[in-house]
Design goal:
Blueprint lengths: L1 H60 L8 H7 L11
Amino acid sequence: MEKIRGDLVEIERQIGGIEEGQQGLRTETEAAQEELNRFEIRLAESRSRTQFLTEEGQREFQADLAATDWRRTALALGGRSPGPQAA
């Protein structure tokens, strides 16, 4: 009977060690998930800002900004902005 109790105590000690290891993994996983959430928020904000700027540029210049060859446009204008010129 004492041998069985000793074996159970040893098994419980091993289980405790495994649970401690799992807790460390859970903590690391939660930290990684929080960091991922922060990056996803920043990505969503950047996409929203990009969409806003694209729409504003298309409205302002009445051109498909993605299809515009900006290097050639800048060279053709001598480095001037292709936007409305101040009088």
